[in-house]
Amino acid sequence: MGEVMAFLSLLCFSGNVLLTKAASSRLNVQIGYFASICVNVFIAIVMVLFEHSVLHNPFHWMLRGFIYYVLAGCLTTYVGRLTYFHAIVRLGAAKASTIQVASPVFTVVLAFLTIKEVLSAVEWAGCLCTVLGLFVVTYVPGIFSKHRERSDERGIVKDVGSLTRPLNEPSAAKGNAFAFLSMSAYGAGNIFRGEGVRHWNDPVFGGFVGALVGLVAFIVTTPRQVYRLRALKNADRRALLMYCFGGLCTITAQMSVLFAMRYMPIGIVTVISMSQPLIVVPLTYLLFKKSGRMTARTIYGSLITLIGLILAVAV
């Protein structure tokens, strides 16, 4: 059961990356994030009501678990996702995913240091093999060179009138900083997710708390941006719809991660759910015309990743 939910989260997170990449060239990322997180909260409310009103599952309040869910929401739904959105916009889906490859290792090490979660030698080998394979899949020689930055990468715009237009100021340095911040936030947030579900075994409500915290944090920290969202009525409808579907993907992925952490070590769940380049990179080539063919590097890296995942979950 844990493996199924972890792989479901992988599919949903990958779908969100592709949708964000497609939508970011048509609509400002701040509006996109707001739309996505609103969908998160709405879907989560529906699922909570269904679980406790229709299925009649009992509701037991656990303060410690609630605190962990709140911290996880701040780090993943708000800091992690928003900075990842900015990284995708500035760097592209493939490059942002390359940096994100280090997140599973960061989580595994952090879990060992903070909550003494110990993996077997085979699980460690699987994790490292997976990360190595993901790096091979995503790495392109010179990808981090400034000379490779395209002049049409989109930056964050400040003025009110341009909120509904694509972003247009490239910033590789900021993009890399956003990607590394996202990696760290997701890594630490996953620890709190795991601890939350262990102290309060209600993944659906935990997903709702995380989504709500992300929305509140966005409103509190960027009140001027929220005021400017009046421009939403003039936004590109297709891009807005993509961001909304991305919100559906992410709330599904978040709840799937929480369900998986009920049955599996936090580090293993993170390794699986963050293996997004295995799906994102090939589809990026196909959907965004990044390459006319699959390279040998991509094929070999995919095989290494699959071997690592098998070692991590099936041995």
Automatic annotation (TrEMBL):
It is a multi-pass membrane protein. Residues 2-138, 174-313 form the EamA domain. Its main location: membrane. It is found in: Endomembrane system. It holds the Pfam family EamA. It comes from the Bacteria. Keywords: Membrane, Transmembrane, Transmembrane helix. The chain crosses the membrane at residues 31-50, 66-84, 96-115, 121-144, 204-220, 240-260, 266-288, 295-314. The keyword Transit peptide does not apply. InterPro entries: AA-Vitamin_Transporters, EamA_dom, EmrE-like. This is DMT family transporter. It comes from Alicyclobacillus fastidiosus.
